[in-house]
Write a structure and sequence with these properties.
Blueprint (H helix, E strand, L loop, with lengths): L12 H31 L8 H13 L3 E2 L10 E5 L4 E7 L13 H16 L2 H4 L1 E7 L8 H7 L8 E3 L2 E3 L3 E2 L5 E10 L15 H15 L8 E8 L10 E10 L2 H22 L2 E6 L11 H13 L5 E2 L9 H7 L2 E2 L2 E3 L10 H5 L4 H23 L1 H8 L5
Parallel strand pairs: 3-4, 3-5, 5-13, 6-14, 7-12
Antiparallel strand pairs: 1-2, 2-4, 8-10, 8-11, 9-10
Length: about 400
């Protein structure tokens, strides 16, 4: 495992301890309501783009903490933009809260949401002294279409100096990357006919999809290293004695970078076109949601978070290996960002399983929420108090 570089913050220990003490005091004061938010979101899972109750709950808690809601709000109905303070350095906390079909918060987004809101409330207590504005963005649909990418397009990150969130996990990890990702809906259309009486009159759309699926399987050997292509058939005919005139599939492509993702997309598209050419069916490819960029985590913020979490008694590993995909990657390409994994006891369960979801409101998860809120807030405070880092962040440069 790659060792982290220790970065000196340049802030006097006593001064930093004073800021962290006030952050701790704020979190202690807000703890009951922060944990109620986590439990309420966990008990009331909402699917991507439909997180209306979660957004309302998070918004109500932020209003209680003195946050105002911007005059301009995102067009996504389950998104929001709120802020506290008027400092030049704008710290964005990303609140994601979507669940998965049938298995609820199997990725722990209730923990993600509550820790981000908690960090925002803690930073509000020291915002004036730090010269920061705390901006909270409700970012729906991380599991599907990528709400953060939509908020980027609408300009909600234009004034942001740094962006933060923590993600539920089985262990505490900083520095990790993620895979760039895109998804397509694939539709073949042919001509129906009786499968026994007049098969030659038909154009078999399912044949097109079978050829394409085979071509994709064969192409995997030549794809860029670390790439993954997944394909499922979502429609393949209605009756066995009818030549299928429609076949549909969902294709998901992942790669270590957007550059190699484009290579994969071109290869997969040719495989899909081969199916159409071989069968005579027509092909329609429709992108689903936004492409996700790879995650780039800021080195200073990662180490400041790690130091703060160590002070809370946590052992935080540094691992820059790519894990899954997230629309926080898109944010990290735009502004310095962190997206550490926030560990709690999940009984060995894997993400995106019902077993993982079952641990989301446990005492261990509650501790993770509060520790993660502290870690994020303390990392932002460390950057705000360090003259060199503050200048870097205000200048829009990376470490």
């Amino acid at each position: 495992m790659k060792a982290a570089t220790v970065i000196q913050t340049g802030v006097a220990p006593a001064a930093e301890a004073g800021v962290q003490g006030r952050i701790c005091a704020a979190l202690e004061r807000w703890q009951p309501r922060i944990l109620r938010l986590s439990h309420a979101i966990h008990a009331d899972p909402e699917l991507s783009g439909e997180e209306f109750r979660a957004a309302k709950r998070a918004g109500a808690l932020l209003r209680s903490g003195g946050f105002s809601f911007d005059a301009a709000q995102p067009t996504l109905p389950a998104a929001f933009s709120a802020r506290y303070g008027s400092g030049q350095l704008v710290v964005a906390l990303c609140v994601e809260y979507d669940a998965l079909p049938a298995i609820g918060h199997a990725c722990g987004h209730n923990v993600n949401a509550a820790s981000a809101v908690g960090a925002a409330l803690a930073l509000a207590a020291v915002a004036d002294d730090l010269g920061i504005t705390v901006k909270v963005l409700g970012t729906p649909a991380e599991e599907t279409t990528g709400g953060k990418a939509d908020l980027i397009k609408e300009g909600f990150f234009d004034d942001v100096s740094l962006a933060m969130m923590a993600h539920a996990g089985a262990e505490d990890v900083v520095g990790g990357s993620s895979l760039a990702m895109s998804m397509w809906d694939v539709l073949y259309e042919g001509r129906p006919s009786h499968a026994a009486a007049a098969p030659a009159e038909g154009i078999n759309a399912l044949d097109a999809l079978v050829v394409a699926q085979t071509a994709v399987a064969l192409a995997r050997q030549q794809l860029p290293s670390g790439s993954v292509v997944s394909l499922i058939v979502t429609e393949g005919g209605s009756a066995v004695n009818v030549i299928p005139d429609r076949a549909r599939a969902s294709v998901e492509m992942r790669s270590p970078s957007l550059a190699t993702l484009r290579v994969i997309e071109e290869r997969v598209r040719r495989c899909l076109e081969a199916g159409a050419l071989a069968s005579g069916a027509t092909l329609k490819v429709t992108p689903v949601g936004n492409a996700y960029a790879e995650l780039r985590q800021d080195r200073f913020l990662s180490e400041a978070y790690r130091e703060a979490m160590t002070a809370r008694g946590r052992r935080v590993e540094f691992n820059d290996s790519p894990v899954a995909s997230t629309d926080m990657g898109n944010v990290s390409q735009l502004v310095p960002s962190i997206h550490p994994l926030l560990g709690y006891d999940v009984g060995g369960a894997a993400h995106h399983t019902a077993d993982f979801a079952a641990y989301g409101s446990s005492a261990s998860a509650d501790s993770a929420v509060m520790d993660g809120a502290f870690g994020l807030a303390a990392a932002a405070a460390a950057a705000a108090r360090d003259p060199r880092q503050r200048a870097r962040l205000l200048g829009g440069s990376r470490d």
